[in-house]
Amino acid sequence: MSGDTPVLRVSGLQRRFGGLLAVSGVDLALPAGRVLGVIGPNGAGKSTLVNLISGHLKPTAGSVLIGDTDLTGARPWRIAHAGVARTFQIVKPFRGLTVADNVTVAVMFGPARIRSRARARQEAERVLERVGLGGKGGLPPAELTVADARRLELAKALALRPRVLLLDEVLAGLRPAEIDPALRLIDELRGEGLTLLVIEHIVQAIAAVSDEILVLHHGAVLTQGPPDEVLGDERVIEAYLGHRYTRRNPS
Amino acid sequence: MAESSTAAPAADTTRPARGRRPRLPAWWPWGGGALLVLGCLGLQSQLYSGQERTVTTVFMFVALAAAWNLIGGYTGYACFGQVGFFGLGAYTTVILMVHARLSFWIALPAAAVVAAVFAAVIGLPLLRLKGHYFAVATLGVAEGLRELVTNVPRWTGGGSGATIPSTGDRAVTPWLGNDGFYLLFLGLAVVCAVVVALVSRGRTGYALRAVNQDEDAAAAMGVNTTVAKTVAFAVSAALTGAAGAAYAFQQVTIYPQRLFDVDITVLMIVMVVLGGAGTVLGPILGAAGIAIASEYLRQHLPEAHDLTLGALIIIAVILLPQGVVNFARDAVRTRDFSLLSNVRRYRL
Ligand SMILES: Nc1ncnc2c1ncn2[C@@H]1O[C@H](COP(=O)(O)OP(=O)(O)OP(=O)(O)O)[C@@H](O)[C@H]1O
Ligand SMILES: [Mg+2]
């Protein structure tokens, strides 16, 4: 972990949808090589937070800084060029392109801006290999398994060579045997100095890789701290697990 | 994620499984295209003048379909007002040749530039609209242009038409004759096809296809979606405007009703969809196929021309919803050439 100047700094971030405060007053300051796990019940505002940082939604208040650059309300491609990559909770493959071409788009248009198609494809193959999609580059995305579709989502984000990586439930739908390699990759990326914001529902998994866990509830930060501390917190158990309990047992 | 998965394939398999593709040398599209152009040049001397005019019209529609394909096929923005750029190109030519007395060879590129600038300007608001909103808005723009042209007769001749002086001393550029227009439209078709081929293979092609599939995902990959869409729209308009310029000069006298006829847009769209949207070859095949079928029916079934052509188009769209070229690609890949399983695959 190098220094403590934050790579990603978010202050007072707020997003209102009509009368609903989907995200309200969120502050973050993440240095390089830090993994922040974000948990919270359905509708807590986790994806909205990612959308606000990546520029896919504009905040109604607050600011987003990448390094020293204020990118509040900037368009998504500017934020991508500033070194922020993200995955989508509902995967968004380019269906008309092969798996390799999907990743090639990121290589060509990301901060690296590799214009030569041959070189971009080489780089794409390398990234596919890394996420475990080696040899599947020629497939159309529709032929991928659920797990592979999530790997493609991750490959596209990694192909941008980001400083900050926002992962919105990349483990969802993976079988237990598939989760461990994914967690190892997250650890590896942290070792390379990436700053990660990882949204996940599987609490044990996220606790294992996160330096800190932030709990969102009704758009606001309920608590933030080291995993064991946060997961032992009464309020978290009530807000998070209580919600799951009621979901499974609708009265 | 070092492991590769062995889970069952995802449920969504609208696209067929992949087989091994037959390998062709990388230059074959260019070689094939060059041969096709040489063939068209050789064909010219074999045609009667009526046939020559028909083939000239086919070339024009190849150019128009290829141009529409950029915005409608690759980018996925179905422009229903494309004829507006055609008319704009035509009337730019009339104004420049009649009022400014400029040569056709200056008016032609100028028409392309005017159409491109116009598209870029209206694109900024319109390209924020999606799906049928964009379609309807562009339709409105084309209608608006027709109204405008009709209402400034001093410049455009209004509803009673405008004539480009093309013979004798008053002609700024002598009329090109059937042979000349055959070559001009062939040249335009080649330019359009080459532009589309270059865009398709290059970086811009990736951007346009990404925008077409998912704009949010494209933007997250660093694609400036606003620029990508606007460039596609402007280039598409430029090519269409150039075709309009050539058409105006060929017709000599032009009327707003004809130059802004929505049928022309519909033809472009049908040709692209039937041939294969988002492919280089598709619009060429679609334009040639429909133009030839239309001509054949006009000669052999004159009283039922529109009805039969319409029925043929409907049947073709049902059997080949993805267009001839995309069907052939899928069929070769899966070794399944059955039209029925194709219909089933696309769940029509
Ligand atoms: N575009 C939108 N328009 C209106 N409301 C929205 C929009 N996007 C999200 N919301 C609302 O904002 C709240 C937060 O949604 P968000 O998707 O961020 O939750 P989440 O924590 O990601 O939930 P999940 O665990 O289900 O993914 C929800 O109540 C949702 O209905
Ligand atoms: Mg979410």
TrEMBL record, chain B:
Localization, UniProt: Cell membrane
PANTHER family listed in its UniProt record: HIGH-AFFINITY BRANCHED-CHAIN AMINO ACID TRANSPORT PROTEIN BRAE, HIGH-AFFINITY BRANCHED-CHAIN AMINO ACID TRANSPORT SYSTEM PERMEASE
Protein name stated in the entry: Branched-chain amino acid ABC transporter permease
Origin organism lineage: Bacteria, Bacillati, Actinomycetota, Actinomycetes, Streptosporangiales
UniProt keyword annotation of Transmembrane helix present: yes
Species the sequence originates in: Actinomadura physcomitrii
Keywords associated with the record: Cell membrane, Membrane, Transmembrane, Transmembrane helix
Superkingdom of the source species: Bacteria
Pfam family, one: BPD_transp_2
Gene Ontology, cellular component aspect: plasma membrane
InterPro entries, sorted: ABC_transp_permease, LivM-like
TM regions (residue ranges): 26-43, 55-74, 80-98, 105-127, 180-199, 266-292, 307-328
Protein topology in the membrane: Multi-pass membrane protein
Record's compositionally biased regions (Low complexity): 1-16
Molecular-function GO terms, alphabetical: branched-chain amino acid transmembrane transporter activity
Signal peptide positions (record): none
Sequence segments annotated as region (Disordered): 1-20
Main location per the UniProt record: membrane
